[in-house]
Amino acid sequence: MRFFTLLQLALAATGFVRAQVNHTVIVGGPGGVVAYTPNQINATVGDIVTFIFQQKNHTVTQSSFNDPCTPIEGGFDSGFQPVAEDNLSGPFPAASITVASETPVWIFCRQTHHCSMGMVFAINPNGKFDAFLAAAEATGNSASTTWSSSSLASSSSTPTITSTSTSPSPTVPSSSSPTTHLILVGNDGALSYSPSNITAQVGDTITFQFMAKNHTVTQSSFNDPCRKIEATSGTPGFDSGFMPVPAGSVNFPTFSITVNDTNPTWAYCRQDNPSSHCGQGMVFAINANESSSKSFEAFKALAEELNGTSSSTSPAKSNAAPNAYATCGLLINFLTVYIGLSLLF
Ligand SMILES: *[C@@H]1O[C@H](CO)[C@@H](O)[C@H](O)[C@H]1NC(C)=O
Ligand SMILES: *[C@@H]1O[C@H](CO)[C@@H](O)[C@H](O)[C@H]1NC(C)=O
Ligand SMILES: *[C@@H]1O[C@H](CO)[C@@H](O)[C@H](O)[C@H]1NC(C)=O
Ligand SMILES: *[C@@H]1O[C@H](CO)[C@@H](O)[C@H](O)[C@H]1NC(C)=O
Ligand SMILES: *[C@@H]1O[C@H](CO)[C@@H](O)[C@H](O)[C@H]1NC(C)=O
Ligand SMILES: *[C@@H]1O[C@H](CO)[C@@H](O)[C@H](O)[C@H]1NC(C)=O
Ligand SMILES: *[C@@H]1O[C@H](CO)[C@@H](O)[C@H](O)[C@H]1NC(C)=O
Ligand SMILES: *[C@@H]1O[C@H](CO)[C@@H](O)[C@H](O)[C@H]1NC(C)=O
Ligand SMILES: *[C@@H]1O[C@H](CO)[C@@H](O)[C@H](O)[C@H]1NC(C)=O
Question: Region annotation Disordered: residue ranges (predicted)?
């Protein structure tokens, strides 16, 4: 694959040897999700971030912290990657970038209104993601601010940015309209749901997309995090069943639930081969009350206490491991945008 060749050249040129991490980010998704999932990652120099474009028609476009919904000159841009709503099987277009420094990289979708709907993403946001997101959403409040006309007209040379016509004033969608939330299960091989805890309204859909291995999402209860709610209280709960995903799959199975009330809802992965995923913290919550004793953190801690192996230490991810190359300005040259002209699959 050309992609590997490029990267290997870059690494060989610097003598930089380190196991790179390949981060997967889903762009959009089933049910009209207007989001990048996950919406932020920490990465070290040499890591790869692969964006997989799902339904319906999005971009991955570089912007800046101060102006979240405006492409920066010379920044990368995937262009629009349309995928029909009923196309659930792919293969989906993909674009990869190689992380060239540990400074933050800010990204948005330049489909009309998506940025002000919060469709933004960051690599190494360094604690500033919430501010970036708020600034993106705030662009929807001003009728005169759209990313399209102002930004593209003022920059004389933005060869990688496809020009678009001026869009009408954005309208902020009512926050009470049902939303689809996309949760990645086992993304990047991790024993986790990403995001692991969310706030959702009645009528919202939560779609779990199974990215790797062989997991479930199964409803449990706060006091008994790693057992079916049905077994502990008789209440029938949801259960996706096992969703095995062979390595190299192009097709990620999904399971959806509808939120019927705003009570806290608890769930876990019931895989216990070779060891309990739930006991390793693979749990999920909807509408946990963070200011009560039944917070998501408390639920996760209870799962680890009841079903974990007491002596096990959770594998700490060395996201911020400093290395000699992080400060090497040369690496800027290796910020390679690999737009999905060729499918990765
Ligand atoms: C990164 O992950 C994507 C999606 O899972 C995969 O298609 C690609 O081959 C991976 N790249 C590398 C360098 O491992
Ligand atoms: C990234 O690292 C910071 C601290 O270095 C941490 O607070 C944050 O939770 C991490 N974010 C992710 C998405 O792992
Ligand atoms: C994708 O969105 C762009 C920008 O709104 C539009 O020009 C293009 O026609 C759309 N493509 C499809 C196939 O809907
Ligand atoms: C799904 O979309 C991808 C990317 O546009 C395309 O290559 C593929 O053929 C589509 N699959 C179907 C079944 O339409
Ligand atoms: C709960 O979700 C938020 C938002 O995604 C995240 O920042 C936080 O780390 C999660 N809590 C835990 C314990 O994972
Ligand atoms: C998935 O895990 C379950 C439970 O451990 C097991 O019964 C099933 O055979 C596994 N499926 C595959 C394809 O590995
Ligand atoms: C919502 O209600 C439907 C129908 O009664 C049920 O199948 C579903 O599991 C419920 N959702 C949750 C999250 O409990
Ligand atoms: C958690 O532990 C309980 C009690 O030993 C057991 O019944 C349950 O199957 C375990 N669940 C998982 C997912 O490991
Ligand atoms: C969350 O818990 C706190 C403390 O128990 C309580 O005062 C508050 O009303 C709860 N919030 C909701 C929305 O239930």
Answer: 145-179
